[in-house]
Hints:
Layout: E1 3-9, H1 16-29, E2 34-38, H2 46-49, H3 60-65, H4 70-73, E3 75-77, E4 80-86, H5 99-110, E5 115-122, H6 126-132, E6 137-142, H7 146-161, E7 166-174, H8 176-180, H9 187-193, E8 198-203, H10 206-213, H11 225-238
Parallel strand pairs: 1-5, 1-6, 2-4, 2-5, 6-7, 7-8
Antiparallel strand pairs: 3-4
Helix pairs in contact: 1-11
Bound molecules: adenosine-5'-triphosphate and magnesium ion.
Amino acid sequence: MGKIILSASGKGGVGKxxxxxxxxxxxxxxxxxxxxxxxNLGLRNMDIYLGLENKVIFDVADVLSGLCGYRRAMLRDxxxxxxxxxxxxxxRSKFAFDEAVVANFYAGLRESYDYVLVDGPAGVGRDxxxxxxxxDVAAIITTLEYVSLRDADxxxxxLSKAGVARRACVLNKVNRExxxxxLFPSFEDVxxxxxxxxxxxxxxxxxxxxxxxxxxxxxRQRGSYIEENFNRIADRLLGL
Length: 240
Ligand SMILES: Nc1ncnc2c1ncn2[C@@H]1O[C@H](COP(=O)(O)OP(=O)(O)OP(=O)(O)O)[C@@H](O)[C@H]1O
Ligand SMILES: [Mg+2]
């Protein structure tokens, strides 16, 4: 039975969707079956990060309403045969389902897939609880800014209440020179301010930004330090 992993954050724009897509590509490269669900309702992004935006016909609300089966809504990436994705609806009002329906949907997918990766919305609102319904693990993505760390800790509380038992923190867009300057939080500040353990550090790297904008998971760049780093983070996340 597959594992359901949520990417969450308090603050927006910290890199959840890019993280999800690259985690998905990393796992799919190992030959396991991965499905990614974009649950950023009304703000679909993941299709663009995979370069599949022109292929979207159905979305997650269509699947849950019974308009189509989940296989019809799935986007398939030729570069990653084991990686599938279901896009978010762009019309938030189309999504009138509760947590039990969402959890049941994920539970159905875990029967056929090794990993169900859920790209959640930022914040601490209802849509976070919907995205988190029935998830086993959450990766809480944060940047090294005090506001982002505080929001990550708030998100952790919401996810705990939503029943996500295992949670860990991933630092993204890290600039070590700025940390050395003393003007930004240190790694020690992270553990003092965010409760879940820190399981990964991803540098700020323009290549990540450029690849996302070109619709390519950056881990596809074979032999790069980023590919290695994502493999390490994936191992730690799966070991939680
Ligand atoms: N490590 C990184 N280095 C450089 N740029 C990055 C990195 N991670 C993400 N980005 C860039 O940051 C921006 C936001 O990323 P992303 O869309 O994944 O954030 P998000 O948390 O999903 O946002 P939202 O809260 O809106 O869903 C994008 O332009 C992305 O390319
Ligand atoms: Mg996003």
